[in-house]
Amino acid sequence: MLKKVLVILLVFYSSTVFSQDQPNTLLWEVSRVGLKHKSYVFGTFHEVYPSFFLSQKNAVQKLTSSSMLYVEQSRKDFYDSGTTNTTIVTWDVDTWKAATNPEQRKVFDSFVQKAENTDYYNLPPLLLSLTLFRMYAQNFCDTANRNSDESLDHYIERLAETKNIPVESLDDKEKIGEVFSSNTLADSVLVEACVGIMRSMLEEDSKPCQIFDTYKNQTINYEFSKDLTEKNNNLALLERNRKWVKRLDKAFQKNSCFVAVGYRHLMYRQGLIQQLRDVGYNVKPILSK
């Protein structure tokens, strides 16, 4: 069940591996005829312990020699997004009751009772699924080297700031509430995802944590030939990728940039890697360690 959840939130897992789709790296070099400088794209895993980035020596060097860092949403914009006029749609007990079947409601109620926190009923499916996965990841999967709950992305941002490298968000802070309130992800799929994560935590099931090893061992299959259809759980990913590519195209022509975004945004035919190639860039994998 949780494998299906992880497909929704992070990564599509496949047993078919092609060398061009599995380059054993997290770092990509971006160049273009006529440009004297190069830029770099690094695929993050938000919930991996933050200092993991320091083990990626080449990625650290490329970051610190860049003139601009782009992240999905900077820490400043993340906290400022709470002050915008966008209101995140909330759910309640009755809404969740209507959205779940009896078995799912039993799991949900048991989780809330054990957590002693009824606030979970107020979160819409997308926001709740992200919240639950972060809890699951940090408490069941990535615990050995973790000494803070900071995301890997924000750690990279702080490192850039120590080098006086400007940081910009790819997502507009005014739009983040719309993302969390959007129904582009099928509620029924996300409801199932939420219940699945709750069940895994209640049962203390850590078997699905293998995806952390896949990331840290850099054995990701990027599946560049896989075409995502514009429906249900892919719409938010595709829409953001399209907007980001337009912005990055302009940025790459002006500066040597370092881009740190969730690695699923690099995957598939509609991922950033293939889209940058489509607009004329040479994008190749390089060692991140």
Q: How would you characterize the overall build of this protein?
A:
- This is TraB/GumN family protein.
- It comes from Xanthocytophaga flava.
- The protein has 289 residues and is an alpha/beta fold.
- The chain has a domain of 202 residues.
- The chain contains twelve helices and six strands.
- Helix 1 crosses helix 9 and helix 5 crosses helix 9.
- About 3% of the residues have low confidence.
Mind sketching the topology for me?
Blueprint: H1 2-9, E1 27-31, E2 39-44, H2 57-64, E3 68-71, H3 75-80, H4 93-99, H5 102-115, H6 125-141, H7 152-162, E4 167-169, H8 176-181, H9 187-202, H10 210-216, H11 235-254, E5 257-262, H12 272-278, E6 282-286
Q: Which residues form runs of ≥5 with pLDDT under 50?
A: 11-18
CA-CA gap between termini:
33 Å
Helix share, percent: 40-55%
Q: SS-based structural class?
A: alpha/beta
Name the shape in a single word: globular
Total strands: 6
Keywords: Signal
Signal peptide: 1-19
Protein name: TraB/GumN family protein
Pfam families: TraB_PrgY_gumN
In a nutshell, what does this entry contain?
The chain is built from twelve helices and six strands. With about 290 residues, it is an alpha/beta fold.
Please name the defining characteristics of this protein.
289 residues; globular; 6-stranded mixed sheet; alpha/beta
